[in-house]
Amino acid sequence: MEPQHSPRRSREKSRRWLLAVLPGAACVLFLLGLFPHLVPPANAQGRPDATPSSSSSAPVSSATEATAAPGISVEREPSPTPSPTPAETPWYLRLVNQDHPLPRDFTVELADIPGGRFDARAAEALSQMLSAMEAQGLSPVVCSSFRTWEDQETLHQNKIDRLLGEGYSPKEAATEASRWVVPAGASEHQLGLAVDLVSAGYQMLVEEQENTPEQQWLMENCATYGFILRYPKDKTDITGVGYEPWHYRYVGREAAQAIWEQGICLEEYEDMQ
Ligand SMILES: [Zn+2]
């Protein structure tokens, strides 16, 4: 455990160490979390033993560099004519999902954050939220943040390949994969406003993540910093994405508090505007 009441400098040091070591481990588990049925339950609870020698060699990077298997048909590629964001929609409320994919040439100014990159305009809000958690003795770990088009494409294809390996038909594999790892263009991670946060003590992207003190705090307080739990358990039919008690989206404080108070999801909020 890291000291909870150490001076700021020391806490910073601890944090830097954690941030140097843990993203690699977190992302091993991120990938395992994408394919939880492939992980024996006994291992699923195990402490990650990823080599901390280089966080840049995290499996997500490896996956990114891996060559996607050719010849697999993907039925739910994003629309070639992405819906443009209405001019009056502020950047932080931009809806990205399978019905509203980003164009391939989408770009955003990014800032480095612990464990990744984030939209530069919202990075400070994320930093403040993480600092507030640490001040409470909590240990959040950024598992995934900004992803390039190619990152998302590879993750999606890997998921499809795994499902094909389990005997799914190409059509079933594409549909099921999209519930968990959306196709390139349809991920908020490409927007730079989404972050997957896990507890340092339990770095699994599984439903039980919701029971960690970090998630309990986030679900109660994230709106204060302009974030929402983007894929709630009771909104999967609207979001089209399975329950993810680790994926937080920046929408600005006003929208976040309205969404939190009304118990709605971003799609519902946008419909009300
Ligand atoms: Zn996510």
TrEMBL record:
Pfam families for the chain: VanY (PF02557)
Residue ranges of the TM segments: none
GO BP of this protein: proteolysis
Domain D-alanyl-D-alanine carboxypeptidase-like core: start-end pairs: 119-252
Chain intervals with Low complexity compositional bias: 50-70
Family matches, as CDD domains: LD-carboxypeptidase
Region ranges (Disordered): 45-89
GO molecular function per UniProt: peptidase activity
Name the UniProt record assigns to this protein: M15 family metallopeptidase
